């Protein structure tokens, strides 16, 4: 078997043999070339060699020019790049060859790795030129060429990393790095040679070196490029900062143990150190703050003036509180502000003076201060109110006492010719003043019990129907004396959680006031209705003079009778105060709506509850609709049909109309039944609730308008929908009047009067 020595030499010769065309496209790629550059033949053939080895098109054109200038054969050295990105120095022997009868030209390239030889040459050159200078520096100095091989390490560097003299020469710089950093360092090193400049390595990062014995230690490194005859080198000045790091760790431990947030900045305002309390306080992670300006932690309105204040501190640094007497605020990452207290302290380091800011969130302290200030104001107001209360109470007690003592002295004076009639009159005044004094004392005692928290309540289901009727009977005499009508709406199915005795006291107080301060021959309407979820509202509406806005503001102040002190009506000015406190103790609320000249409506809202089992049968019976009244029995009076499914509202209107002698009332509780009754009875006036079971009030009105027999009947609406759009829509649809709940009795009477006027003008009523 004949050995093909040509092929053997081509494949096995040291280095790599590559054949390209004149454009640089690879035609042959030996195993040596694969070992040299890392590409297989399949990966390389067909591609341009300058793309594979880290060159440019311009580099290839320059090579062709040199090849032609040297007669088709050219030897040179150059920096190339492997597939991994690692740089290598190669020695290249190139020659133009021709193949075949067509004499096609190829370029034969033989390349050998001389990276280590280049490093040793560089080392010899640098050794002679820089050794003496570098030995005098206190830091470890390591110089490497563009392939990352060490060409010089001074004695301090060899001692620092634990190597013998000359042992580092020609080794990759990565032997001085921990294993976890080596792969990334190769690309960083290559990028540095693209744009070499003097700078600190890994600014803001923690860097570590690796000794020969595999022990790591923290380092600080500065890089400087050096241009030599052999090419560019990089000089690394390396300093062991183990002791400094220990001191920093100790200092950081002190910072972390501090209760306050600590932020340390330099003269330029850059943040150089923060503790974990600062991270929590401002909502940043430590890495997000380091290197940032201090102003990121300050609200925008203060940030502009902060650099000037910082410069002022560095001009005369001393420990002090920042912004003494000023309101200071910090700014969190989420944009929220919070009040802070800041203490400043200068820190002297090796190279510069820093300022340490101890920052404390005083939000809670400010809240407490505000609460204390508010409490102080409330105490001052309470003291003033107490003084005013005592003065007012003294006046109110002396007034009836003055009458009692005065008339008693007249009776006791035997020298005065007092007649029997005068004696009875004087005794009547004494009794009246005594009763007033007793009422006043009882109300004062009630108020004292409430304010001291000693009042006892028995909360239970209380039926409003029975209670309101009791209260009605108790004020009947007073109402009759003044000619005031008291109308109580039925509320048989309504129960509230309350103390029965105290609730009756509340209702009596409101009724007494409504009667006492009403106009002559006025009216008082007591109504009950649901108010929101699980609430019932009891309202007492009068037709008195009403209250002005400034009177409403002072309504629930003790002994404030709202200008009635000089009037004929006796009163203490405490009743409403006691009423309000009792309502609130029972979990309710009290309010008032008033129109000067028209009257007032006081209301009390209390939690609703279910009726006791024993009362449910009575409730069901009371809720039955009134019997239909035949048209033949209406006695010639105009007939009013009221369709309403709420028994309370039904009874209220029945009671209101019981005082009228010009109308006859029939009722029903269902929409379908109401429409049928309207068609059969042909009432003169129709009063409709808008939300009825079976058929809505709006639909009843529409069908009646379409029927000629019922089209002319005035239809009045009653609804809990008080929105303006609902009212306008009903009026536009042809309703004669629209009343909102709770019903204004006077407005209802006026509306009925107007409807009767229409009926009379049409001549529809039989006896007018």
TrEMBL record:
<dbReference type="InterPro" id="IPR003661">
    <property type="entry name" value="HisK_dim/P_dom"/>
</dbReference>
<keyword id="KW-0808">Transferase</keyword>
<dbReference type="Pfam" id="PF00512">
    <property type="entry name" value="HisKA"/>
</dbReference>
<keyword id="KW-0597">Phosphoprotein</keyword>
<dbReference type="InterPro" id="IPR011006">
    <property type="entry name" value="CheY-like_superfamily"/>
</dbReference>
<protein>
    <recommendedName>
        <fullName>histidine kinase</fullName>
        <ecNumber>2.7.13.3</ecNumber>
    </recommendedName>
</protein>
<dbReference type="InterPro" id="IPR000700">
    <property type="entry name" value="PAS-assoc_C"/>
</dbReference>
<dbReference type="InterPro" id="IPR013767">
    <property type="entry name" value="PAS_fold"/>
</dbReference>
<dbReference type="InterPro" id="IPR003594">
    <property type="entry name" value="HATPase_dom"/>
</dbReference>
<feature type="domain" description="Histidine kinase">
    <location>
        <begin position="392"/>
        <end position="610"/>
    </location>
</feature>
<dbReference type="GO" id="GO:0006355">
    <property type="term" value="P:regulation of DNA-templated transcription"/>
</dbReference>
<dbReference type="GO" id="GO:0009927">
    <property type="term" value="F:histidine phosphotransfer kinase activity"/>
</dbReference>
<feature type="domain" description="Response regulatory">
    <location>
        <begin position="639"/>
        <end position="756"/>
    </location>
</feature>
<feature type="domain" description="PAC">
    <location>
        <begin position="203"/>
        <end position="253"/>
    </location>
</feature>
<dbReference type="InterPro" id="IPR005467">
    <property type="entry name" value="His_kinase_dom"/>
</dbReference>
<dbReference type="Pfam" id="PF13426">
    <property type="entry name" value="PAS_9"/>
</dbReference>
<dbReference type="Pfam" id="PF02518">
    <property type="entry name" value="HATPase_c"/>
</dbReference>
<keyword id="KW-0418">Kinase</keyword>
<dbReference type="Pfam" id="PF00072">
    <property type="entry name" value="Response_reg"/>
</dbReference>
<dbReference type="InterPro" id="IPR001610">
    <property type="entry name" value="PAC"/>
</dbReference>
<dbReference type="InterPro" id="IPR036097">
    <property type="entry name" value="HisK_dim/P_sf"/>
</dbReference>
<dbReference type="GO" id="GO:0005886">
    <property type="term" value="C:plasma membrane"/>
</dbReference>
<feature type="modified residue" description="4-aspartylphosphate">
    <location>
        <position position="689"/>
    </location>
</feature>
<dbReference type="InterPro" id="IPR000014">
    <property type="entry name" value="PAS"/>
</dbReference>
<dbReference type="GO" id="GO:0000155">
    <property type="term" value="F:phosphorelay sensor kinase activity"/>
</dbReference>
<dbReference type="InterPro" id="IPR001789">
    <property type="entry name" value="Sig_transdc_resp-reg_receiver"/>
</dbReference>
<dbReference type="Pfam" id="PF00989">
    <property type="entry name" value="PAS"/>
</dbReference>
<feature type="domain" description="PAS">
    <location>
        <begin position="126"/>
        <end position="179"/>
    </location>
</feature>
<dbReference type="InterPro" id="IPR035965">
    <property type="entry name" value="PAS-like_dom_sf"/>
</dbReference>
<feature type="domain" description="PAC">
    <location>
        <begin position="324"/>
        <end position="374"/>
    </location>
</feature>
<feature type="domain" description="PAS">
    <location>
        <begin position="9"/>
        <end position="52"/>
    </location>
</feature>
<dbReference type="InterPro" id="IPR004358">
    <property type="entry name" value="Sig_transdc_His_kin-like_C"/>
</dbReference>
<dbReference type="InterPro" id="IPR036890">
    <property type="entry name" value="HATPase_C_sf"/>
</dbReference>
<feature type="domain" description="PAS">
    <location>
        <begin position="247"/>
        <end position="300"/>
    </location>
</feature>
């Amino acid at each position: 078997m004949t050995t093909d020595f040509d092929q053997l030499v081509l494949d096995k010769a040291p280095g790599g043999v590559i054949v390209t065309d004149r454009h640089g496209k690879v035609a042959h790629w030996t195993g040596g070339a694969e070992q040299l550059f890392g590409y297989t033949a399949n990966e390389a053939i067909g591609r341009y060699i300058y793309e594979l080895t880290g060159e440019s098109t311009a580099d290839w054109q320059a090579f062709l020019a040199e090849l032609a200038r040297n007669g088709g054969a050219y030897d040179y050295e150059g920096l190339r790049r492997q597939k991994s990105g690692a740089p290598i120095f190669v020695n290249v022997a190139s020659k133009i060859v021709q193949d075949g009868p067509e004499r096609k030209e190829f370029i034969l390239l033989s390349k050998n790795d001389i990276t280590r030889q280049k490093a040793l040459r560089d080392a010899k050159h640098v050794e002679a030129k820089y050794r003496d200078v570098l030995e005098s520096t206190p830091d470890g100095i390591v110089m490497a060429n563009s392939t990352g091989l060490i060409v010089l390490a001074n004695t301090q560097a060899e001692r620092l990393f634990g190597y013998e003299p000359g042992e580092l020469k020609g080794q990759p710089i990565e032997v001085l790095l921990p294993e976890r950093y080596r792969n990334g360092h190769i690309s960083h090193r290559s990028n540095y040679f693209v744009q070499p400049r003097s700078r600190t390595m890994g600014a803001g990062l923690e860097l570590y070196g690796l000794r020969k014995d595999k022990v790591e230690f923290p380092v600080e490194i500065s890089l400087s490029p050096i241009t030599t005859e052999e090419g560019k080198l990089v000089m690394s000045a390396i300093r062991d900062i183990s002791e400094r790091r220990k001191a920093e760790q100790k200092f950081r431990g002190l910072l972390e143990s501090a209760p306050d947030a600590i932020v340390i900045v330099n003269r330029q305002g850059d943040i150089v150190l923060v503790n974990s309390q600062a991270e929590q306080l401002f909502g940043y992670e430590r890495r997000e703050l380091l290197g940032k300006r201090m102003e990121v932690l300050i609200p925008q309105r203060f940030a502009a003036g902060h650099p000037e204040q910082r410069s002022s501190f560095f001009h005369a640094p001393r420990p002090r509180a920042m912004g003494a007497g000023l309101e200071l605020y910090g700014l969190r990452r989420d944009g929220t502000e919070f009040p802070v207290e800041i203490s400043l302290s200068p820190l002297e380091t090796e190279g510069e003076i820093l300022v340490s800011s101890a920052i404390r969130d005083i939000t809670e302290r400010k809240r407490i201060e505000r609460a204390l200030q508010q409490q102080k104001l409330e105490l001052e107001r309470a003291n003033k109110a107490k003084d005013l209360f005592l003065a007012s109470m003294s006046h109110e007690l002396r007034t009836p006492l003055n009458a009692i003592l005065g008339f008693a002295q007249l009776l006791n004076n035997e020298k005065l010719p007092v007649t029997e009639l005068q004696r009875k009159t004087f005794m009547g005044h004494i009794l009246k003043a005594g009763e007033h004094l007793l009422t006043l004392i009882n109300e004062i005692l009630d108020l004292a019990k409430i304010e001291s928290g000693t009042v006892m309540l028995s909360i239970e289901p209380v039926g409003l129907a029975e209670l309101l009727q009791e209260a009605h009977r108790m004020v009947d005499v007073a109402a009759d004396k003044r000619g005031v009508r008291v109308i109580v709406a039925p509320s048989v199915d309504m129960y509230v959680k309350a103390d029965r005795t105290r609730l009756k006291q509340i209702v009596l107080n409101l009724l007494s006031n409504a009667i006492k301060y009403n106009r002559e021959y006025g009216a008082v309407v007591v109504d009950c209705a649901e108010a929101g979820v699980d609430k019932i509202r009891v309202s007492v509406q009068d037709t008195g003079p009403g209250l002005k806005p400034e009177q409403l503001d002072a309504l629930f102040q003790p002994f404030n009778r709202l200008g009635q002190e000089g009037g004929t009506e006796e009163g203490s000015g405490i009743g409403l105060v006691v009423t309000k406190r009792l309502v609130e103790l029972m979990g309710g609320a009290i309010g008032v709506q008033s129109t000067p000249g028209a009257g007032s409506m006081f209301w009390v809202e209390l939690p609703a509850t279910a009726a006791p089992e024993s009362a449910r049968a009575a409730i069901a019976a009371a809720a039955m609709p009134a019997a239909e009244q035949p048209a033949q029995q209406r006695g010639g009076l105009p007939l009013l049909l009221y369709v309403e499914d709420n028994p309370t509202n039904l009874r209220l209107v029945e009671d209101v109309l019981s005082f009228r002698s010009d109308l006859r009332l029939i009722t029903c509780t269902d929409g379908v039944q109401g429409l049928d009754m309207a068609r059969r009875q042909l009432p003169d006036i129709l009063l409709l609730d808008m939300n009825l079971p079976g058929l809505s009030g709006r639909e009843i009105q529409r069908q009646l308008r379409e029927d000629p027999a019922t089209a002319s009947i005035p239809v009045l609406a009653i609804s809990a929908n008080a929105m303006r759009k609902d009212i306008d829509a009903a009026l536009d649809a042809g309703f004669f009047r629209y009343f909102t709940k709770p019903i204004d009795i006077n407005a209802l009477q006026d509306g009925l009067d107007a409807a009767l006027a229409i009926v009379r003008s049409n001549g529809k009523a039989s006896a007018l």
